[in-house]
Specification:
- This protein is 46% helix and 12% strand.
- With 213 residues, it is an alpha/beta fold.
- β5 (146-148) and β6 form a beta hairpin.
- The radius of gyration is 16 Å and the shape is globular.
- The structure holds iron/sulfur cluster.
- Iron/sulfur cluster binds at residues 15, 18-21, 23-24, 30, 87-89, 101, 104-105.
């Protein structure tokens, strides 16, 4: 097992026993995230829904099928990317995750990003978008990457939102088709020696807990 796979396994083990926020009370299974530890692209969604909570995997069910179809359109499978969420446990009745739940869960996602060190982080939906585009409106910024220090942050519509509004399909298709060029651009920057900053620097209790591993 690679170092990255082992480190991701340690984070997942931490998540499995986590009771740091109230979402642990209603979960069936935790959904720490899944995919390739060496992924060049990392997708970040919002939180587990019913199917994810049952299976312990991110983006299964209709949204997951659609994401797989989009990946296939650019020659990728879900095993080649990493898929995670801003919260790792299902909010009751699929409500939005609360700010304090996102903040409490943040160190796990921060650590996953640090371990995987992706070239491109794709945000799916407004809660992951808010990490990198605090004042962004998805209708205005979708498909427009922000490039910082050898990493691109790429906001896309949430697949579930596109399924609910088929009028967004052409925009989602076009945004997805730009991903391979963005990855190639970031590869070139890394080859030229541009490195992303270390993350995270938080000293909050969950981070301290994670650092024990
Ligand atoms: Fe812990 Fe995150 Fe689950 Fe909350 S959502 S209990 S912080 S793993």
């Amino acid at each position: 097992m690679s170092d990255r796979a082992a480190l991701l396994g340690e984070i997942a083990a931490q998540v499995r026993t986590c009771t740091l926020c109230g979402l642990h009370r209603g979960r069936t299974r935790t959904v720490p995230g899944a995919g390739n530890p060496n992924a060049e692209i990392m997708f970040i969604g919002e939180g587990p829904g019913f199917n994810e909570d049952q299976q312990g995997l991110p983006f299964v069910g209709r949204s997951g099928d659609y994401l797989v179809k989009l990946l296939k359109s650019i020659g990728l499978t879900r095993d080649q990317v990493f898929i995670g969420n801003v919260v790792k446990c299902r909010p009751p009745e699929n409500r939005d995750p609360l700010p304090d739940e996102i903040t409490t869960c943040k160190p796990y996602l921060d650590r996953q990003i640090e371990v995987i060190d992706p070239l491109v982080i794709v945000t799916l939906g407004r809660f992951s978008m808010a990490r990198y585009f605090p004042n962004g409106k998805i209708t205005q910024i979708h498909g427009k990457p922000k490039i910082e220090d050898g990493r691109a942050y790429y906001p896309l519509f949430h697949p579930a939102a596109v399924l609910r509004n088929p009028g967004l399909v052409p925009q989602m298709d076009a945004d997805f088709k730009r991903l391979p060029d963005l990855v190639a651009q970031m590869r070139a920057q890394r080859s030229a020696g541009v490195k992303p900053p270390d993350v995270p620097k938080d000293d909050d209790p969950p981070m301290q807990q994670l650092r024990l591993f």
